[in-house]
Amino acid sequence: MIAVEGFAADGFPMEDVAQDELDGADASRVSADLFDLDADGHYETSVRHSDAGITVATDVDGDGVTDKFTAVGRDGQYRTWEIFREANGIGRGEMTESGEL
């Protein structure tokens, strides 16, 4: 699933998923790491690890909303989407890359 509404990188939770979300029989543990890759003092990249694989969401232009999203499955398959905003504010994802690592 792609969250085309994006997220505000500075407001992204640092902690793991709440325990009550993990209590279900099929619940997976998810953790997130934040990175300030350009050293401007703002986290623009979020890396999430789960049982399914890794996702990387990046705010390329610094507006606080995800512009690039990559999912890497445990099988080595990956897909990258660029997230575009329409004039009305609605986002849409366009797959730009896919392959196998």
Distance between the termini: 20 Å
- Fraction in helix: under 10%
Q: Total strand count, please?
A: 6
Give the strand line-up of the largest sheet. 1-2-3-4-5-6
**What is the molecular shape?**
globular
What is the percentage of strand-forming residues?
35-45%
Low-confidence stretches: 1-22
Features:
single chain; 101 residues; mainly beta; 6-stranded antiparallel beta sheet; 4% helix; globular; disordered N terminus
What can you tell me about this protein's structure?
By secondary structure, the chain is mostly beta strands. The chain contains 1 helix and 6 strands. It starts with 18 loop residues before the first helix and ends with a strand. The chain has one helix at 19-22, and strands at 31-35, 45-50, 53-58, 68-73, 77-85, 91-100. The longest helix has 4 residues, at 19-22. A 6-stranded antiparallel β-sheet has the order 1-2-3-4-5-6, with no helix packed on it.
Task: Note the topology.
Layout: H1 19-22, E1 31-35, E2 45-50, E3 53-58, E4 68-73, E5 77-85, E6 91-100
